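Q: Predict the assembly, please.
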Amino acid sequence: MLQFIQFAITRAFMALVTLLLVSLIVFSLMEMVPGTCAERYLAFKNTQGQQITIDDIEAEKVRLGLDKPFLQRWTGWVGRVFFKGEFGDSCILRLNINQLLGDKFLISLGICLTSLVLAYLIAIPVGIISSASKSKWLNGSLRFVSYFGLAMPNFLLALMIMLFSTVYFGETLTGLFSKEYRDAEWSVARVLDFLSHAWLPIFILGWSATAFALQTVRALMLDESGKLYVTAAKARGLSGGKLLWRYPARHALGPIVNSLGFDLNRVFNELPIVATILTLTEAGSLLLESLARSNDQQLAGAIIFLLTASIVALNFVTDIALAVIDPRVRRSVMGQG
Amino acid sequence: MADSKSTGSLNTADQLAREKYFTATQSQLIWARFKANRGAMIAGCVLIFLMLLGLFAPFLSPYDPTVKGRDKDYQNGPPQIPKFCDHNGCSARPFLYTLERTRSIKTNFRWVTEVNTEKRRYIELFVDGWEYRYFNYRINLPGKNFDFTIPGFSFTTHLFGAADGNIHIFGTDSVGKDIFSRTLHAIYTSLAVGTLGVFISFVLALVIGGVSGYFGGLLDGVIQMFTDAVRTVPAIPLFMALAAFVPDTWSAEMRFFFISIILGLIGWPTLARRVRTHLLVERNQDYVLAAKLSGAGAGHVIRKHLLPSFTSYIIVDLVISFPYMVLSETALSFIGLGLKDPVNSLGVLLQNVTKADVLLNYQWYFIPVVFFIALVLAFVFVGDGLRDAADPYSDKH
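A: Predicted assembly structure:
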């Protein structure tokens, strides 16, 4: 048990180091955007009719701490993010980023995770069945469907569904909430309203995730079912679902759990694009807006950091989960000491 | 040869085939296995066809794909499909009907385009049209003296055109640009961005993965940590962050190169990891030790001994990563952060179909979508076929 805790702590430490590195990358990117916060603030004041001098800019820089060296500013930013959960203010919108994000990030995360779960709920049984079946027709069509899921980008699918529903049902299917619930407090009615809107983004994000998962599951199952222990199990008289489920499927589970973090990464990739088309008001489109329209580096940095942090967290959880469910991993963890 | 006589039961043809198999080079083996995969072969043909379409885009397209080549009398015009037969009989040469602009009391004195089915316009081959150049480069370095232009070769011949008037076989868009010409040029642009992106990520992956795998130890640990960190950041949001740097004042070419560089900068970690894993295994082999004992330096060993041992895998990986480059470019252009209108890329064309108006009235805007899906599908199938063919254990010999 002690060894297990030690393992968990090592993993947590590694996750933390990864996060620090990511924060460094994100922070340097934010720095690279031309123009500093001080200039932006003063440019805003300038539009309000105030006269701005070079001294004002310098004073503003000192006030915002922009005169300090890069590393010091980075540690300051990271410290606030890690210990207080504060992302500071957005210079463009002159608002607190935490307020701006609110529950939007959690909603996006929820949508992405749900679509991922959905993808695997479909992909695991279908992948196992297709790997076991000898039917050329079934395998060929599954292969085609999963490739098609890849070649037909989510945004096209979103677009098609939306356009068809607009044209043929007169329903736009956009947004995450109906008008009356948009700014309301969370309540049962609001949750229900949310669910009635959220199925479409979940479905669309799940579409290509399913295609990917299907291919992974099938390839892993094919690899495993050729192995000797499966033949041995067959020789003992096992067959059908029992054989598949008890032997190759359990082995194939490991790599799948392991790759969940990267699947989430892929879903996040699609999020901003799908969000633009469906005009969802959550983190993905906020990111797009902060980048494309206003060049708001603080907000963009915060969102990218949060996205990455959730991937790192998921990776950590899957590492631990793998050690719990897979005796081989468990033994190697315990053995290492 | 003496050996072949002792196994006399095999006939000579069989024997030759076997001998060929055992003496074949790796690329011959891969090709043989690839040929046996029918799906991949079909996809390969489609891919080559699309590439040729892209390469010869200016020759094949009857009009300039930019605003210069627009047909202002045929805006949002439906595709004109050449016919062989009509109520006036058949002709061996495909023809179109003449479009006439008329204005009368019937049309409320507005200009209306009418189709005159009595007047035929025949399709002509190798017609003279807009001027295009191959191998034409304009290099714009800082400083006046460093700007130079390579004129290249200019042509005006195009594969087809129609007598007296225009031909738009895929229709036109809202300003009258020929969608067929735009699609072909878009294929070229998307392929070029992808190629450049793949190339950049390839070089980065080779250098980083090579160093990390060859030297191992602490350096490897540090590089791997960095690679993993880059890999965890979701790529498209990061693309977006990088693409936002592009000022609006940049020219189309600058944008094009910048987007390719971004694609390359983000695509390398996966390939670098594979290079590293392979090098970690191979560097302990005897032939590497032999080379080292003979006094070869690190660079020499990596280039002359280690890289050739897995060239085929690298090529396969490049083909596999290609569709993702095209998809990323499309996604970026689609949200308006990538390439923009005067440049024709598939993403720019896909952006045009986002209006409900298009689905209702101008369905021919969707034609480039078909090309896009075909391109990505073809790449994925070819990549998959190549991967199976390059894997020596996929063979059931």
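Residues 179-215 of chain B form the longest helix (37 residues). DSSP finds 15 helices and six strands in chain B.
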